[in-house]
Amino acid sequence: MTKSFVFPGQGSQFRGMGQDLYDNHAVVRDLFERANELLGLRITDVMFSGTDDELRATRVTQPAIFLHSVAAFMVNTVEKPDMVAGHSLGEFSALVACGALSFEDALLLVSARAEAMQKACEQQPGTMAAVLGLPDEKVEEVCRFVTDDIVVAANFNCNGQVVISGTVSGIDKVVPLMKEAGAKRALKLPVGGAFHSPLMQPAAEALGKAIEQTTIHQPICPIYQNVCALPQTDPEVIRQNLLLQLTSPVRWTQSVNQMIADGATEFYEFGPGDVLKNLIRKINPDVTVG
């Protein structure tokens, strides 16, 4: 069996996340306290007992999900993965799992990423919408109908489920067009930014400086990166793909299909919730999901 480890992104957070891991594993307590020290804030307090609004703040959400994912990976694995992948933010957890990034470097990058994205959202407000029931190509075609605003496909989550991203006015224009094109549903999401779109360019530039200064090691197995949906083991290629990630779509459907084509038979999700498990089952119901 070929084991693939996958890691979720922003949106899978919940109040109390990581509390059970912290209470039951000394190694997790050490990891979380190290994170509090590195970040200069008690992020664990927000994870365990913060308000929903506090936990939704990008600067908290991203490090929190990363911490939970890495901790779950640490205490639940006895075997090395044959391949890894992460959805958006989850790519940083995947890079830790395959040895390409140290925990400390990845956490600092995630924190820098969150701060840069928050600032980009404040500079150029945007939003996103989920489109259900249309082929990927049709969603991209409809997005191109809007020529006076920025609207792009941002997340290819599974067959018939694509998230689009862009300016508020652009999303408002394209949502009814998706419905006219035959979408079962097209609805705006409660987010304050146009993630994985050209509107994230200021964040990409800010994060790029941190990525360029970070050591990326040879991974122990291939990582299937969001930008290209292909297996990567070259540290410099991994670096370049990370630089492109914030302004490029998350090709999750394509990544999972490629992993299966390359021999993946078992998928294991590490992190809060089971979003990726459900997506993988929709992409290919014949694989084992644990």
How would you characterize the largest beta sheet? Answer: 6 strands, mixed
Q: What is the number of independent domains?
A: 2
CATH architecture of the largest domain: 3-Layer(aba) Sandwich
Quaternary structure annotation: single chain
Helix/strand-derived category reads: alpha/beta
How would you describe the shape?
Answer: globular
Determine the CATH superfamily of the largest domain. Answer: Malonyl-Coenzyme A Acyl Carrier Protein, domain 2
- Helical region count? 13
Can you tell me about this structure?
The protein is an alpha/beta fold. It folds into 2 domains: 3-122 and 198-289, Malonyl-Coenzyme A Acyl Carrier Protein, domain 2, CATH 3.40.366.10; 125-188, Malonyl-CoA ACP transacylase, ACP-binding (Alpha-Beta Plaits, 2-Layer Sandwich). It is built from 13 helices and 11 strands. The protein has helices at residues 19-24, 26-39, 43-49, 52-56, 58-76, 90-97, 103-123, 136-143, 168-180, 201-212, 235-245, 252-261, 275-283, and strands spanning 3-7, 83-86, 127-132, 151-158, 161-166, 185-188, 223-224, 231-232, 250-251, 266-269, 288-289. Strands 8-7-2-1-10-11 form a 6-stranded mixed β-sheet, with helices on both faces. Strands 6-3-5-4-9 form a 5-stranded mixed β-sheet. The chain is globular and about 55 Å long. The model has no long low-confidence stretch (mean pLDDT 95).
